[in-house]
Amino acid sequence: MASNGDDEQIKLVEGPAGYVLEDVPHLSDYIHDLPVLTYPNPLQSNPAYSVVRQYFVDEDDTVQEKIVVHKDSPRGTHFRRAGPRQKVYFKSADVRACIVTCGGLCPGLNTVIREIVCGLHFMYGVTEVIGVDCGFRGFYSKNTVALTPKTVSDIHKRGGTILGTSRGGHDTSKIVDNIQDRGINQVYIIGGDGTQKGASAIYKEIRRRGLKVAVAGIPKTIDNDIPVIDKSFGFDSAVEEAQRAINAAHVEATSVENGIGLVKLMGRYSGFIAMYATLASRDVDCCLIPESPFYLEGKGGLYEFIAKRLRENGHMVIVVAEGAGQDLVAESVEQQDASGNKLLKDVGLWMSLKIKEHFAKQSVLDITLKYIDPTYMIRAIPANASDNVYSTLLAQSAVHGAMAGYTGFVSGLVNGRHTYIPFNRITEKQNKVVITDRMWARMLSSTNQPSFMNPPKGTTVVSD
Ligand SMILES: Nc1ncnc2c1ncn2[C@@H]1O[C@H](COP(=O)(O)OP(=O)(O)O)[C@@H](O)[C@H]1O
Ligand SMILES: O=P(O)(O)OC[C@H]1O[C@](O)(COP(=O)(O)O)[C@@H](O)[C@@H]1O
Ligand SMILES: [Mg+2]
């Protein structure tokens, strides 16, 4: 076991040929009389599961992080495979679980809540599940609600979170006091990078106090900015919904002479929604994201490209991620929200004014620009069918993990397999579009937009 020097034990298990397991903590790592207190998994006698051969996950099953390898390369990093274990560390009647949702909305939040409640109830016979109102601060400043399969039965058809959410308000020691006072022994925390940092702090404090409380995270991010996992739940739904805005922009642009449709999509630091929505649509002429700097004036700049496209096609559609071009837009001191995230300026509005101004000055092309900002409409929708299945499985994995005594983990899909990932791996950096990777090249070749790589001398380049 290695320590990262921050009082956190990172569990690294090494094996032959460069095999490394980045394991997740277990309650028995710090509660030493626990190993004798195990119970048979109630699923063993559940008619739905008892017929499935090899339903239980082998303790030694792990999932490889990097699936593409050279023939001589080491086996590399692995994560513990998620799923039910033969033995569990909680007696069903003793479990008192709670669920909290934090950060921005994302399609699928209600599906995850529903499945934690139903999974605990129907797979493990757990009846005591409470919902924490409005994010982390709800632990100490709000009431809780009892959650039963009946009260959550159709919530997956609704957008948002029935529990409410918030930013800021994380006070680790007050939260853990409250967990102790309420006799909670399983904590399910649904949220993004900020939330999982908070979840990690809660886990560490619980461990420091020696409590038998499992902490499980379910990563949520509409921006797909959490690393390691294949993609976040709700992302597909967001990309799908973005098509409606892009279609509208295209209709507006093609219905007038020299029409420009400009669509702003979410993506504070990562442009995944913009990139995938562009690739899906094929009506987009230019996609701008935080990771790829761009500039407006001069050779190879955006204005030149707009003029070229309008002359060729008579219309164009531009998609811009909200975090793109913030340097140029920012005219005042940078501001932060309650969680410490950068507050963004409206790049869409700024671009629409700049483009209109530029072409009015030129008086060569008489353009008509329509700006569409569907951002909150996109993240408020219910999950689509595939995100509903995905969210359900993530929630079930989290439940299996907590019942098996694992803690300090998030459930996540890695190369198509469900895994348990230690908090530090998903909070240490953000997932971003790598503009030297093939996906960005595919996007560039689909739009044929400039790469904005060689700005003329003295040009202001817009980056994040
Ligand atoms: N470094 C951190 N340590 C503890 N709590 C944090 C940290 N960063 C964010 N949080 C808390 O996590 C919650 C959600 O964070 P936020 O950044 O708003 O959304 P998200 O989790 O979706 O990224 C907030 O209550 C915030 O106070
Ligand atoms: O207006 P809010 O609620 O602060 O949310 C805006 C932000 O939320 C996001 O959807 C991401 O939020 P999270 O970090 O909470 O997942 C960003 O794309 C956007 O900048
Ligand atoms: Mg975040």
TrEMBL record:
Catalytic activity annotation: beta-D-fructose 6-phosphate + ATP = beta-D-fructose 1,6-bisphosphate + ADP + H(+)
Ligand binding (ATP): G104, R167, G168, G192, D193, G194, T195
Record bears the keyword Kinase: yes
Amino acids binding Mg(2+): D193
Cofactor: Mg(2+)
Active site as annotated: D223
Activity control note: Allosterically activated by AMP.
Compartmental location: Cytoplasm
Phosphofructokinase domain span: 97-400
Presence of the UniProt keyword Isomerase in the record: no
Job of this protein: Catalyzes the phosphorylation of D-fructose 6-phosphate to fructose 1,6-bisphosphate by ATP, the first committing step of glycolysis.
NCBIfam families, per the entry: PRK06830.1 (NF005301)
Similarity section: Belongs to the phosphofructokinase type A (PFKA) family. PPi-dependent PFK group II subfamily. Atypical ATP-dependent clade 'X' sub-subfamily.
Protein name (database record): ATP-dependent 6-phosphofructokinase
